[in-house]
Amino acid sequence: QLQLRESGPGLVKSSETLSLTCIVSGGSINSGFDYWGWVRQPPGKGLEWIGSIYSYSGSTYYNPSLKNRITISVDTSKNHYFLKLSSVTAADTSVYYCATTRGYSYPVDYWGQGTLVTVSS
Amino acid sequence: QSVLTQPPSVSGAPGQRVTISCTGSSSNIGANYDVHWYQQVAGAAPKLLIYGNNNRPSGVPDRFSGSKSGTSASLAITGLQAEDEAHYYCQSYDRSLSNVVFGGGTKLTVL
Question: Which one, of A105, A91, A100, A110, lies nearest residue A43 by Cα?
Fold first, then answer.
């Protein structure tokens, strides 16, 4: 059973870069069948797709509204993948979830437990 | 403002049937992209409830069903139970935005 777990600081200062790691277990991140992504949810609000990476090719797919600030990358040797979101503001305060799908029109098959990241001024 | 529109809240008594709508446009649901539904209870990650418009993952009761027509989709829950109280989200893909999109979410209250 695939498991995803988010890791990273719970507090980031405004204008700095948010960095999170998703630790994948129970399966290989380099299987070639999955897109490894991130979803966020501001407190009390709905879900927002951030982006994903196809580990087999390294191709990335970003939410256009966040594209200039996002970098998603992967370390297949560690079975981890990463999110970096630059120039954060209070609006980026959210629970961030690891999420994996088989493609852009497929559902999220597996979710991490989520990690709250608060942006402070 | 979400690309997919859901009612903010619905409610029903135990045993009743409720439906949650998800309205999109010709660039997402109407473009024949699949709709998926998730259930999120307070403090937990979303859980896949319906995939590919009307398919249930293993373990999801058949009280939950999905449908799609034109630019809209619906989630129906029959035999409402207290444990169904949660937020429900629809998801699809939007070709104009080139992005995965979610509905704004619907809070289901079991009276």
Answer: A91
Q: Which residues of A touch B43 (CB under 8 A)?
A: none
Residue B59 confidence (pLDDT) above 70: yes
Contact B2 A46 (CB under 8 A): yes
Q: Could you read off the pLDDT of A37-95 as tens digits, one per residue?
A: 999 999 999 999 999 999 888 899 999 999 899 999 999 899 999 999 999 999 999 99
User: Do A106 and B34 make contact, defined as CB atoms within 8 angstroms?
Assistant: yes
Give the closest-approach CA distance of B81 to chain A in angstroms.
23
For B17-38, write each residue's pLDDT tens digit: 999 999 999 999 999 999 999 9
